[in-house]
Amino acid sequence: MTTTNPLLVPTLSDLRARTSMKWGLYPSDVLPLWVAEMDVSLAPAVTEAIVRAAQTGDTGYPYGTAYAESVASFAADRWGWDGLDPSRTAQVPDVMMGIVEVLRLLTRPGDAVVVTAPVYAPFFAFVTHADRQVVETSLSAEHRLDPAAIEDGLLRARAGGSKNPVVLLSNPHNPTGTVHTRAELESIAQVARRHGARIVSDEIHAPLVYSDAAFVPMLSVVGAENAFALTSGSKAFNLAGLKAALLMAGPEAVDDLGRLPEEVSHGPSHVGILAHTAGFARGGDWLDALLAGLEDNRTLLGRLLEEHLPQVSWTPPQATYLAWLDASALGLSAAASADALAVVSDLAGPAEFFLEEARVALSSGHVFGRGGEDAVRLNFATRPEILTDAVTRMGRAVSAVR
Ligand SMILES: Cc1ncc(COP(=O)(O)O)c(C=O)c1O
What span, in angstroms and rounded, lies between the C-alpha atoms of 263 and 266? Predict the structure, then answer.
C-alpha cells in the first residue's frame, strides 16, 4: 500500500492558519523554517486515536503501560532491539521535563552536566534552570562524538567539585543530524564508567533516521547498563502539542528509577499518550512515507544550496529534518552576541540577516553553543515549493549584498 507523502497535504494557506509556534511567531511575509515542528498532516492512526478519545470522553488521567509496549515493539521492528522492558520505564510530561527529573535522581544542585556542542539549545537552559552546571564540550570537526573531549569535560567537572557528573547526549544529534555509531557510544560509555559519570541519552529523533544510517539505542550498548534514555512520538509524529514522553532505565538504573516521585507520572497528557502510542503502534506506513518525503527534501535542499547559496556548506543529516548550514563564508558571525542562555527564538549573525533580508526564519546557530556562531539550522520538513522559495530568497539576499 502506498501512503500519501504527509508533507504534501497541508497547503501554504492551511499552514498560515496554524496557531502553534512555528507559523505563529512571524508575520505572514516570512517563511518559517525554524523550530522543530513539521508541516505535515497527522498519521491517520493518530487522528483516529485523538478523535476516539474526544468522542467517547476518554479524557481522564493516564493509566497503563501501552505507551512503553508500543515503543518496545517499534524498537524491536525498526532497530532490532528487544531489550526495552516496559517495567523499567516511566511516563513523563515531555522529554525535557524527563531529563530534568533524571538529573534530580542522579545529581545534586551544582553538579556538572556535560553536553556536546553544538547541541539542542534547551539543554543549556533546562540544566541551568534545574541548578545544575553545564560543562560544554565540542563535537569533532566532522560532527562526531569525541570521547577525548568528553573525558576532558568530565575531568573539568571533577576538578570543579562535581561529585555526580552526567553526560547528556542527543542521539541522534540535534542540530547536526549525526547518527552515533555503536563503537562511538561504547567508547562514551567506557569514558563515563571510568569517571563515575552517568549517561542520559535523548532519543527523541530516533524514528527519523534515513536509509543511509542505522540508529543504535544507548541502552543496547555494552557498558551503558546504568544509563537512562528518553524517547517520544513528539518529533516523529509531530505531536509536540500533545505532551508525553517515555523515560527508560538500563538494568543497573532500576533502583534510581524507583526513586522517581509518583507525582511525575501525573504530568503527561492521557490524550497525548494515546496519540503517541497510536503513532508507534500503527503509524509505520505513514512514517515510511514521511521519511521518503524528507529524503526527497534533503536531496532537493542539496540542489538548491548548490544553485543559490554555493558559499554555504553542509553535511546532509543522517537523521532529523534539520539541516546544519555553515555560513561562515558569508562573514556574518554571531560571536559578539553569543549568550550561553540563549533561547530557541533568539537571532543573531546569519539567521538575523536571513530574517531581515530574505524574510526566511531559521534557527540561529549561536543558541546551540560553541561552534554554532557561524551556522544556521534549517527545518526542511515542509512542502518542496516552500523550501525552494526560501532558499531562492536566501540566495537573492546574499547576492544583493555582495
Ligand atoms: C533533541 C531534542 N530533545 C528534546 C526536544 C523537546 O522535546 P519535548 O517537547 O518532548 O520536551 C527536542 C525538540 O525539538 C529536541 O530536538
Answer: 5
